[in-house]
Write a structure and sequence with these properties.
With 307 residues, the protein is an alpha/beta fold. The protein has a single domain (6-304), classed as Rossmann fold (3-Layer(aba) Sandwich), CATH 3.40.50.720. The protein contains nine helices and eight strands. It has helices at 15-25, 40-54, 69-77, 108-126, 160-167, 178-199, 224-240, 247-259, 293-304, and strands spanning 6-10, 32-37, 59-63, 83-88, 130-137, 204-208, 268-271, 280-282. The protein binds NADP nicotinamide-adenine-dinucleotide phosphate (NAP).
Length: 307
């Protein structure tokens, strides 16, 4: 595995992305960290804080809104040197209007978690600007977390149409439950990553869930009752029951996935047990579609048609 010295992290100004930047800066081998952010003021504040905390001037801001493919293309055209690794971390539950459609015809939740990242990876590959590893922020939601009331996403067929209905939101409707959409969106992205691993064997494509993580802004845009449950009640009670961990532990999963060669390309790693915490394992034992090339290719084709 090629050594990783430069890393681009999307959604690097807050939560897991920012903590990952902090942890990577502690590694002497890391020489540069690109902070992929959509808001210039938040990006500057995060860069200044990271420089102070790490005592290293290795951070560079790359402005990009990953829900907008044109913004992503513009950001990549401004890069002047190859990057060893990219952490596709931005996203979450899709903002205040997760089911509303973007100009590309996909929902906001799909655009910010999947489409912009697919465009980013394609642009980097086309310009030979990524040399080693692409790591995607997966979620245990993609295989279901019954303990937390999150059902496994239902796939009726292995067709491109199936994944298209997830991308354009037609399967959920304008008032669909954002957490149900979230699980299907993360599943689609995980399958897309596995297809990319087969297509580009010289690059490692690893999907790694950070696990249930408190201390981030990830639940802020959920509907009121769900926000109260997951963020305020859950954020306090779930760690006590081993169902959530701190942001340091979540971000460390990304760092391990990036730097430890035991994590293999095309695989999805997340919590080994039924709670979204603890050690990680290959998730194909939980849900066989992760290993199914027809599902992988259909998800990938559905993503590509909107790029
Ligand atoms: N927390 C968990 O329990 C958990 C579990 C599994 C997976 N994950 C995944 O981990 C990732 C990070 O989550 P988090 O909990 O750290 O959330 P967070 O605290 O809300 O951080 C999300 C980051 O992504 C950025 N972002 C959102 N949409 C963006 C866009 N369109 N363009 C550019 N940046 C954008 C945010 O920027 P702004 O500050 O500008 O909004 C912020 O920097 C997400 O992909 C999430 O799905 C989280």
């Amino acid at each position: 595995m090629k050594s990783i010295q430069t890393v681009l992290i999307t959604g690097a100004n807050a939560g897991l992305g920012r903590e990952t930047a902090r942890q990577l800066a502690q590694q002497d081998s890391i020489e540069k960290i690109y902070l992929g952010c959509r808001n210039a003021e938040k990006a500057k504040a995060a860069k200044a804080a990271l420089e102070t905390e790490s005592k290293r001037a290795i951070f560079e801001i790359v402005l990009m809104d990953v829900s907008d493919p044109n913004s992503v293309r513009g950001a990549v055209s401004g890069l002047d040197a190859p990057i060893d690794a990219v952490i596709l971390n931005a996203g979450g539950t899709g903002g205040r209007q997760p089911n509303a459609l973007t100009a590309n015809g996909v929902t906001n939740i799909f655009a910010s978690n999947v489409l912009g990242h697919a465009v980013l990876v394609d642009e980097l590959l086309n310009r030979q600007l990524v040399t080693s590893t692409v790591l995607y922020a997966g979620s245990e939601a993609a295989r279901g977390i019954p303990k937390m009331g999150m059902a496994r996403p239902e796939l009726r067929t292995n067709s491109v149409e199936e994944f298209t209905s997830i991308a354009n939101g037609s399967r959920f409707g304008p008032d669909g439950d954002p957490l149900e959409a979230y699980a299907s969106v993360k599943l689609t992205a995980t399958l897309w990553m596995a297809a990319m691993a087969r297509k580009h064997p010289h690059i490692r494509f690893i999907t790694m869930s950070p696990g249930g993580t408190t201390g981030t802004n990830g639940m802020d845009d959920l509907p009121f009752m769900k926000r109260i449950f997951f963020k305020h009640v859950g954020g306090v009670l779930m760690p006590l029951f081993g169902m959530m961990h701190g942001v340091e532990t979540g971000a460390k999963r990304y760092v391990d996935g990036l730097l430890n060669p035991k994590f293999k390309s095309g695989r999805f790693y997340a919590s080994a047990g039924s709670s979204p915490t603890g050690p990680v394992s290959d998730q194909s034992g939980f849900f066989s579609v992760f290993d199914d090339v027809t599902y992988q290719d259909s998800a990938s084709l559905a993503v590509q048609q909107f790029a």
